[in-house]
């Protein structure tokens, strides 16, 4: 089996690992999360669902972290056969590869929908998809170091402009829209956990990143940042969307976050309205998410077929393109994202604890100090 890591060149710092997890999590879902939560819960208490989901994601990430730290320098693709045997491991790896290919296609399609609807109207979707794919290929051929450096540039820009756009609507915020707290009981909050979990999945990429980290012991720091920063951003987005737009408007807008940004205007500034600027920046953010997913899928294929990762980057692109063109409408694409969220919870929330338990029982890997 070919090792997918290179100890001399392909190493990342703890900060870079954290940035990669954050960027992976902050994808297309941020634009629709408020509507998705309200469709499930139908109550202003969905902010509680977000907090609970953050706690669940952190716990799930801990199991991945503990598991990977038992097998230093190896990705989950590489050490899983040691735990379960090759036959079972390859079945799970194939499922994971299919998941990442489909996730890549979803992120790519959402990025294309936003670009086509707001920035490049009347441009064929396939041409936008092709452009993004080839740019991602050029980036990923450089390895995880190239991705990490780009993500370090994109994330601060994204966070600064996002917070400026969101917090600028505070003067329109009405806290009464969030009351009464738990007025419909705890049941709606529980209903909102599943879509919130779908939006916060991203911790799973740690099963690759830990193998590349210079100091794997500090993986817990990357996990903390990778879970809690996106949780806070989504929490702020949800609270402000309801407080400014109200329940009805938030639930009936295709992109409630974008509608929130459109709700205010500053006269006399260079950009009197920020939605176009935010769209450009968030497309950059979705692109980084897509590139990480594409790399994860290719890394799995390289392990399966004993090939170098770069050659498999070319092989997975046509598959991603085909899957991205399957949804006929935006709503079908959104439904695909919801199904992927459920699949992520089952795959990366359910399997790691079992694998960790089996590795301990069978005494595989190193003991975690």
Write the layout of secondary structure elements.
Blueprint: H1 14-25, H2 33-41, H3 46-69, H4 76-84, H5 86-119, H6 125-141, H7 144-167, H8 187-191, H9 193-200, H10 206-212, H11 219-245, H12 247-251, H13 256-262, H14 275-305, H15 309-324, H16 330-361
Helix pairs in contact: 1-7, 1-11, 1-14, 2-9, 3-9, 3-10, 3-11, 3-16, 4-5, 5-6, 5-14, 5-15, 5-16, 6-14, 6-15, 7-14, 9-16, 11-13, 14-15
Distinctive features:
369 residues, mainly alpha, Amino acid/polyamine transporter I, 16 helices, globular, disordered N terminus, transmembrane helix, Spore_GerAB
What does the model show?
- Helix content is 72%, strand content 0%.
- It has 369 residues and is mostly helical.
- It has one domain: Amino acid/polyamine transporter I, CATH 1.20.1740.
- Helix 2 packs antiparallel against helix 9, helix 5 (86-119) packs antiparallel against helix 14 and helix 5 (86-119) crosses helix 15 (309-324).
- It is globular.
- It is found in: Membrane.
- Its main location: membrane.
- Pfam families: Spore_permease.
């Amino acid at each position: 089996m070919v090792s997918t890591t290179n100890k001399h060149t392909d190493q990342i710092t703890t900060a870079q690992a954290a940035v990669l997890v954050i960027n992976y999590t902050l994808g297309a879902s941020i634009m629709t999360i408020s509507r998705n939560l309200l469709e499930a819960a139908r109550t202003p208490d969905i902010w509680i669902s977000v907090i609970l989901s953050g706690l669940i994601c952190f716990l799930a990430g801990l199991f991945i972290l503990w598991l990977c730290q038992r097998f230093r320098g190896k990705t989950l693709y590489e050490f899983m056969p040691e735990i379960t045997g090759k036959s079972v491991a390859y079945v799970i790896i194939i499922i994971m590869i299919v998941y990442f290919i489909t996730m890549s296609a979803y992120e790519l399609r959402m990025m294309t929908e936003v670009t086509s609807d707001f920035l490049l109207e009347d441009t064929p979707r396939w041409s936008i998809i092709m452009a993004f794919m080839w740019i991602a290929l050029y980036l990923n051929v450089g390895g995880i170091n190239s991705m990490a450096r780009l993500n370090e540039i994109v994330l601060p820009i994204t966070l600064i402009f996002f917070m400026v756009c969101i917090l600028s609507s505070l003067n329109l915020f009405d806290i009464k829209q969030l009351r009464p707290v738990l007025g419909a009981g705890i049941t709606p909050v529980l209903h909102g956990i599943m879509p919130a979990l779908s939006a916060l999945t991203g911790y799973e990429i740690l099963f690759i990143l830990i193998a590349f980290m210079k100091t794997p012991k500090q993986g817990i720091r990357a996990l903390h940042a990778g879970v809690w920063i996106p949780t806070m951003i989504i929490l702020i987005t949800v609270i402000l969307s309801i407080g400014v737009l109200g329940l009805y408007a938030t639930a009936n807008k295709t992109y409630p976050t974008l509608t929130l940004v459109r709700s205010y205007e500053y006269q006399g500034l260079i950009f009197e309205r920020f939605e176009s600027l935010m769209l450009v920046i968030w497309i950059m953010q979705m692109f980084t998410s897509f590139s990480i997913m594409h790399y994860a899928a290719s890394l799995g294929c390289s392990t399966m077929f004993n090939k170098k990762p770069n050659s498999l980057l070319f092989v997975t692109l046509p598959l991603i393109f085909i899957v991205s063109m399957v949804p006929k409408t935006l709503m079908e694409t959104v439904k695909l994202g919801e199904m992927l969220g459920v699949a992520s919870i089952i795959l990366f929330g359910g399997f790691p604890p079992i694998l960790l338990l089996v590795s301990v029982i069978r005494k595989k890997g190193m003991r975690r100090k």
